[in-house]
Amino acid sequence: MSRASTEQRARVDVLRTADDRRPALYEPTLTSLHGEVKELPSVWLYDERGSALYDEITRLPEYYLPRREGEILRVRAAAIARRTQARTLVELGAGTAKNTRLLLDALDSAGTLERFVPLDVSEQTLRASAQAIAGAYPRISVHAVVGDFERDLRRLPGQGQGPRLIAFLGSTIGNLYPEQRGSFLRTLAGALGRDDSFLLGLDLIKDITRLEAAYNDSRGVTEAFVRNALTAVNGELDATFDQRRFVYEAGWDPEHEWMDIGLRALQAHTVSIPRLEIDVEFDEDEALRVEISSKFRREQFELEAARAGLRVESWWTDRAGDFAVALATSDLSAGG
Ligand code: AVI
User: Fold this and answer.
1) 105-119, pLDDT tens digit by residue?
2) Which of the listed residues 40, 53, 57 should we mutate to test ligand 1's pocket, taking the one with most ligand atoms within 8 A of CB?
3) Protein residue with least CA distance to atom 9, ligand 1
4) How far is CA 310 from CA 79, 191, 299, 305, in A?
5) Which residue from 209, 249, 309, 328 has the highest number of Cβ atoms inside 10 Å of its Cβ?
6) What separation in angstroms does the CA of 14 have from each of 72, 123, 124, 191?
7) Residue 51 CB–ligand 1 contact under 6 Å
8) Closest approach atom of ligand 1 to CA 214
9) Of residues 154 and 96, more confidently modeled
């Protein structure tokens, strides 16, 4: 396959540029820094450097999630391809799309797949992975979308062109607060057509030591990933966050059943954020949350999905029972 034809088959639509997204971030940043627990919206994690660090996280020995998900997909991908007959594979929050290749392989071998639609906020990462996938799968076209999976679900290519499989892998859904997650699942149920399916990766509740180890790796890559959010805010908003005044912290919250991930102020101090026209005062030991990562139980998740209008048709786990992949359809689609 020549270089030109690979490029022709890899189109990238930019629904939201970094410049569009930035002002939309100011308001939530302001609000979350004034919450009961101070917080930075987790989107600050995913600039180009953050996306590269996350990619590194997925290869860490402690971070079992992608390997467990891969184990499930290797066994189930052919059945998923048979069941869904997908002509379009959409991947939400695509990043570097590694486990997606298992789905692409199966759908490509089944002969149904015509297009791959990865959606991600990081344009650079998306462009690179769109090119790589177009090169590796000569029979399909790649129509990448730079956008936001919470807001752009109804604007995706492939609608009305046969069955779509919408995949949301890696347990990224765990990074949404329960309320946000509910509204995402409802929007998704409304966006699925009667022939469409939804494939979701979910990290399951397990031994706390292992959960905490996954977010406190020995090489400090997760810490660098989280600290990068401060660097991003300093760069974009002229803020004065001083890394030396914070210690990294990621621990299990048993009440909410999520990993609470962020930084803690080592001493009382004030951070200025000129672009938001605020000064933020930190007490000694005060937390600054940067992300939550919820972990799931089957029964509870199925109820939550049902409330949103999704029917979980299959639930597969890896041999150790660490991770689940769920295949769902919508009860809301016409005739569904
Ligand atoms: C993207 N997401 C599923 C990751 C997680 O495990 O919640 C983000 C992450 N944060 C720290 N390590 C990985």
Assistant:
1) 999 999 999 999 999
2) 57
3) 54
4) 20, 11, 14, 5
5) 328
6) 32, 8, 11, 20
7) no
8) 12
9) 154
